[in-house]
Write a structure and sequence with these properties.
- With 246 residues, the protein is α/β, with parallel strands linked by helices.
- The protein has 2 domains: 3-104 and 194-236, ATPase, nucleotide binding domain (Nucleotidyltransferase, domain 5, 2-Layer Sandwich), CATH 3.30.420.40; 112-191, Nucleotidyltransferase, domain 5 (2-Layer Sandwich).
- It has helices at 48-59, 78-95, 104-110, 176-183, 196-208, 227-236; strands at residues 3-8, 13-23, 29-31, 35-40, 66-72, 99-102, 121-129, 132-140, 146-148, 153-156, 165-170, 189-191.
- The strands form 2 sheets. Strands 1, 2, 3, 4, 5 and 6 form a 6-stranded mixed β-sheet that branches. Strands 7, 8, 9, 10, 11 and 12 form a 6-stranded mixed β-sheet that branches.
- Strand 1 and strand 2 (13-23) form a beta hairpin.
- The longest helix is centred in the middle third of the chain and has 18 residues, at 78-95.
Amino acid sequence: MPYTLAIEISQREGGVAIRPADLGADGAHTAGDILTEPILSGPGGDGLAPAVERLCLRAGQSPADCALIGVSIGPGGFTGLRTAVTFAQILARVTGAPVAAIPSAHVAAASIDSATVPAGTLLVVLGVKREQFWATRFERGADGHWQQASAAGLADASAVALEGLAAIAVDAHAPALLRERARAPGVPCVAFRHDPADCLRLAERARAAGATIAPEALRPIYGREPEAVTLWNARHGNGGAHHREA
C-alpha cells in the first residue's frame, strides 16, 4: 500500500515520519495517521536506514511502496543533510517516488502554531555561527500556513531588521545579541521544533501544488561553506573543486 516518507535530520535531534494510505470500503486510498521515529545524530545515534525500516514495520508497509519522499534540506548539519539527500535519492530511484525538497526553515516555521503567533511576520533563525545566522521571513497565509515572504540568506545579529516582526523563531543557539535587540521593540523569541511530521505535511502540500522534483535535482542548502570543506581547502587549496549549494 502506498505511503509518504519524510526525513528531518538536518539538526542534531530529528527523525523520520510515515503516513500510510488507508484503503476505504470503496477501494480508494485515503490518508492515514502519521507515525514518527526519532533519530539522534552523532556517536551512538540511530542510523537513518534502520529507523526507516523500523517505521515501515510499525506501519505495516513495504519500503518498495513509497509514493512520495519529503526531505528537510537545510541549512543544518553537513553530515545529516548529506545523509538525508543521498538516502532519499537512492530510495526515489528504486521506487520511482517523486521528491519534495523542504527548506528546514519551513519545517521550523510549521511548528509555530497560530495560538503562539497568530499573524504577522515571523523571522526563523537557523545555522547560527557566532553572531551570524541564516534568516528566513514568513507571513501567515489565508490558509493558516506560513508562507515564505522574501529570499532567505545570511544575516548578522547586529544588523538584521526587526521592525514589524511579530516574533523570532529560535533554538538554544540563537545569538545573545539578537535576543537583546529583540527586547527593546518587544519582539518575542519563540522556540521552534524540527518535527518530521511537519516535514511530511509540507511534502504533501508540495505535491498537491505540483512542486516535486526528480531525485537527481535534490541538493542540500548550506548557510555557509561546511567546516570540513574549509579545512580541506586550507590544507590542499580549493582548486575550484568545491561547489556550495545555496
